[in-house]
Amino acid sequence: MVTVIMVVLFGSVFTSCSNDDDLLLAGDPQTEQVSTNCHELSAKEAIEYVSSMYGAKKGNIVYADSILIVDDDIVFDIKSIKNVINQCTTRAHHSTPIVPLQCTNIAVYPQLSGNNALPNAWYIALLQALVQWNNLGGPVHFSVISSINQVYNYDWFIAVTYETPYPSTSVAQAQFPTAVNKCGSWIKINPVLPSGVQSFTADQKTHICIHEIGHTIGFGHTDPDPDEGLPVISVPYIYLFNPPHDGTSVMREGYPTSTTYSTFFSPGDIKAYQILYNWN
After folding, report:
1. Residue 265, Cα to own-chain centre: how many angstroms?
2. Residue 222 and residue 154: Cα distance in Å, rounded?
3. Which terminus of the chain has a lower count of CB atoms within 10 Å, N or C?
4. pLDDT tens for residues 42-69?
5. What is the DSSP string of 149-199?
6. Could you give the CA distance from residue 224 to residue 236 in angstroms, rounded to a whole number?
7. Rounded to an integer, what distance in angstroms lies between the CA atom of residue 165 and that of residue 172?
8. Where are the domains of the chain?
9. The pTM is what?
């Protein structure tokens, strides 16, 4: 679906969310153990790890320029993955992914000037998307800031820019969290839409922003039909419905067409939020 990438350069601002090696793995560990040795992590090993931990198909994971891109719009920083699994230890697989439970007070910094400034229509869509997330009343709260100097008042921040992600075929990209206390730190909206996409309505832009924000706080893709191999809600290996189906999920994979997008959260989205953040 949509993808967004943004600046990692502000990551060093934070001291409260600084330890790449400390992991918080949600869910009960499964019996299978994964042994890791001290060596330089290969792209194949990184792909294996992301596939096993996050439920992504290996064929949908692309390695490029020290990042892994899943389904065109979820971006994993390869350095963080190396820090996570290359520690000469044995780790257990868990039924749900790593989530940043302590980063719940998040600043969002939309770039409004310069070469990568968001157009007004995308800025409005972003604001509406943040209102939708905050209105859920969950543990994560987003605040819009107008200056980087304000980030010190928050656990973490997400920068949103209007620039070509990699690869450029994505509508948008977002960085996925890989360690406790670390959310994804950027979202990129593509100024050049992929072939076959003429334009988006205001509601479709809002949906895209809601979707990409979800990725930055640990939500994967929802499969409207489990035949594609993705989870029915955006937590790997969790299937809620019988028959399993969640066609109105904001985390549904794919471009937001006139019939495949929503600006409101489905019951599956809310259930995923509860699972990922131990939210009752």
Report:
1. 16
2. 29
3. C
4. 778 888 877 777 767 788 888 877 788 8
5. GGGGGSSEEEEEEES--SSTT-SEEEEPP-BTTB---EEEE-SSPPTT---
6. 14
7. 7
8. 29-94
9. 0.77
